[in-house]
Structures are given as structure tokens and as C-alpha cells.
Amino acid sequence: MQRTVSNKALRAPADSLGLLIIGVSRLWRQRLDERLRPLGLSQAKWAALYRLARLAEAPTQVALASELGVEGPTVARLLAKLEAAGYVERRPSPLDRRLKVVHLTARARAEAARIDRIATDLRGELLAGLDPAALAAARQVLLELRGRLEVTPPAAPGRPTRSTRRDRR
Length: 169
Description:
This protein is mainly alpha-helical. The protein is about 60% helix and about 5% strand. Helix 2 crosses helix 6 (about 105-125) and helix 4 packs across helix 5. Residues about 160-169 have low confidence and may be disordered.
């Protein structure tokens, strides 16, 4: 059954759902960053290692950039730093030698496990005492919103869509 949101709810002040999601996300990430600081990793580095460790297979640099929500040159600089520190190896793709596939080293897997333990502890602390049914409902709403946002929006009227280098890979 499809429910609609009232116009009043859509015009909510600064505590609207979107702003709350952004604010909670930022604060949660800051708190996690504080706890991970002793590992000596910047937020960009630990986020990349954490995401890489959770992927089913080693991604290309282009796919990793998309996964992290950054541009190709940004992920290339980040990977250069991670590679120099012994966390990743970039190898040519067996399917297309122009593409680089990012592989975690054993050192990175151990570090990702530490990151996961710290993130799990923080999540447990933050969610402790909250109603399980409310958490399940909140999770469902967020999953539905993500699904809607992941759909590629149509081009603005009168403006053709632009093909980018990333689109072609």
C-alpha cells in the first residue's frame, strides 16, 4: 500500500529527514574517525580499506571511485598512498589491461578487521537500548530511500545526457 507524505511534512524546518540523515551520518563518521585515529589512518584511507574489505571481489579503480562516491583522480591519489603504505596492490585487469584492479594486502585485511571491530563496537553503543522494531522500520525506510536515489535521474528537459569516461568503462 503506497502512502503519501503530507505537504506539511515535506516543508518541515531544519530538522527535516534529509538534514537529519546528513547530520547523523556526519556525526557518526566523526565519532568513528576519532576512534580510528590511533590506527594512523585518515578518514579517506580507513573508509577505502573498509569498503574494499567488504566487496565480494577486487574492483577496478573506476568501480572503487564509484563505490566511494569520488572522482577517478581522487581515488588514484588515495590508492597511490595506500599502495606506498603496503595496503593495496594495483594490477592490470585480466579482461582489459588498461584498467587497474585493486587488491588488498594481508596487512590491509588485518587493518580492515580492526576497523570493523571498532565500527561494530561503536554501532553497538549507539544503538543500545533503541527499540528493535523502530530500528527495523528506520532501516527499511533508509533502504527504500537509497533504492529511489540509486535510480539514474532523467536528463533535465532540453538537455541531453552526457556520456562520461566512467560511463564507457
